Amino acid sequence: MQILKCGMASIQDTGRTGYRNLGINNGGVMDRTSFALCNMLVANDLRDALVEINGGEWVSVSDHAKLIVVGGKGYNVFAGDQQLNLWQPYFLEPGVRLKILPLTGGGIAYLAIHGGIRINTILGSRSTHLTAGFGGKEGRMLRTGDVLPTAILRTALAEKIVLYLHRPGMKHQLRLSNAAIPDFSRNTIRIFAAHEYSWFTPAAQTLLGTSGFELTGMSNRMGYRFNGPALQLHHERQLLSTAVLPGTIQVSPDGQLLILMADAQTAGGYPRIGQVISTDIPLLAQKSPGSRLQFKVITASEAEAVYLKREEQLANLKKDFSLIFA
Amino acid sequence: MYPLSESALTMEYGTEISIARHRELMGLMEFVRNHSFPGFQDISIAYNSITIFYDPVIVYQNFRQSPISFVEQWLHSKATTFIFDSILPSGREHIIPVCYEPPFSPDLEAVAAFHNASPEEIVLAHQSTSYYVFMVGFSPGFPYLGLVPVFLETPRKASPALRVPAGSVGIAGRQTGIYPFTSPGGWNILGRTPLRVFNINDPDLCLLKAGDTVIFSPIDAKTFYYLNQYADS
Question: Which of A122, A241, A247 sits opposite B47 (nearest CB)?
Fold first, then answer.
């Protein structure tokens, strides 16, 4: 597949585990829900690599027919002149241009291709590590002219999906049901109290759960910075650097929030007031600068129950999807 | 102990920086690695904590209970039965050449002025002791080394430098460290090493790992250029 036009895009999968003691973070996709759904819709393994588009226009073309899907938030998709829906698997004929164009306030789009992007794995992942310059395509963002290796063979399930799409009148009929499409319009992000929560004044704790916080333009794959009321510590205290993760809400010395995202470093030393629940990180990832968000504090065990339920739903959805073509 | 996320649990051990305690944590970390549970993914170490990373779905499928409380109980039982002096993994010892001359030492004068000392005294103090690697973090291969002599304790820069070249050796508080990649950074830079501290093509990946010890050895600019392993600096 050749890239004819490229904005901000990179190859990502679920990232690397097992190397945190070397300072190598997990990395991987920003929005794991959209990632998993897109891979499901083109009969991929839920760990296969795809293209994450964080902004700008994408145009690509391939010499071979491809089963593709685009998911995420805030993009228009065209195959030639034909507009496609997000979350709609499509059989893309050879030579037909695929265009993915951002709307105002667009978030992140995912382009999944059956068979995944077959680029070399490094330390068990195809994710692009931008800081260290490895993984993905030469450790960098994609650019115009790049050629991405994709699979030519199809699995049995993919073959059935392609046959389904070839039935008269079915070309545009396959689409993820509305109930399964993530609701990215919600502006309340659920969090649980982090270890240094009690270091903050009662006023700060109340503000965290009641105020609005505005996502600023100082936001990227490493972290999202917010404008809001300054959250104060009881008194100045130093934290020894310790493990941090995507979703960790750090409070910088000026009292503002920085939420670590997919490419966050492995350790940090700023006091942590909360942790975004894993299930809501995709929702947060899809917010664009200027969005006004609220935080709702729940307990860690509630967060865990939400997580397990969500994973079960995704597993069931995958089963149901394959049954359509049985 | 506290949940860091739905898939990670941190255990704190002590509240201060101590090499003796850190070595005990290193031992516990190895013990955990060798006796892990279904769903275990990784364990990492920091100054006074270890963090276990796991897949909650696999833990739940195997033990049918809250993964957080399972891992808490599991780690608690391991930490209480583990005899800390039974395993003392020995780290490697490294001599790292550092050039403290300009242009590799942009903050040396400012640090000297801050301490009312001469640049020579600062350089001597920095290389006067061996350092212990407490953790690798911030970016791949970045070693957090300590402890620098009390005399050298220096706060971070008020505004971070936009470009710290790869190989730069800096100090912050009582820590010293090496930047593996050219990046922004807030530590005061005293010199630069020509050695690469992270290399994705090296089977070892990182020159320095938690538990290792480091001695800095001064070199002149000519030797720096001769030894330089960085293509871009």
Answer: A241
- The whole-angstrom distance between B44's CA and the closest CA on chain A is 5
Letter string b/e over residues A154-187, b meaning 16 or more CB atoms within 10 A of that residue's CB: bbebbebbbebbeeeeebeebbbeeebbbebeee
The identity of residue A84, as a single letter, is: L
Is A289 strand, coil or helix?
coil
Dihedrals phi, psi of A252, to nearest 5 degrees: -80, 170
Q: Is the model's pLDDT at B233 over the cut of 50?
A: no
Question: What is the DSSP track for B19-55?
Answer: HHHHHHHHHHHHHHHHT--TTEEEEEE-SSEEEEEE-
**Cβ(A298)–Cβ(A267) below 8 Å:** no
Return the structure tokens found at B115.
Answer: 């301490």
Percent of the residues in chain B that have a pLDDT greater than 70, as a whole number:
97
How does pLDDT run across A143-202, given as a tens digit for each residue?
999 999 998 888 999 999 999 999 988 777 788 888 899 999 999 999 999 999 999 999
SS3 of A216, please?
strand
Give per-residue pLDDT as tens, A22-40: 999 999 999 999 999 999 9
Give the span between the Cα atoms of A148 and A138, in whole angstroms. Answer: 11
Segment (H or E) for A319? helix A300-324
Decide if B6 and A19 are in contact by the 8 Å CB cutoff: no
Report pLDDT digits (tens) over B113-167. 999 999 999 999 999 999 999 999 989 999 999 999 999 999 988 888 989 999 9
Partner-chain contact B5 A243, CB within 8 Å: no
Please give the model's pTM, rounded to 2 decimal places.
Answer: 0.94
- Lookup result for tokens 């070249």: B165
Alpha carbon of B153 to those of A227, B122, B171, B211: distances in Å? 33, 11, 8, 22
**Within the 34-93 window of chain A, which residues sit less than 8 Å (CB to CB) from chain B?**
none
For residue B78, give every residue at least 6 positions away whose Cβ sits within 8 Å of its Cβ, in sequence order, or none: B28, B31, B32, B35
Q: Residue B53: what are its φ and ψ, rounded to 5°?
A: -110, 135
**How far apart are the CA of B51 and the nearest CA of chain A, in angstroms?**
7
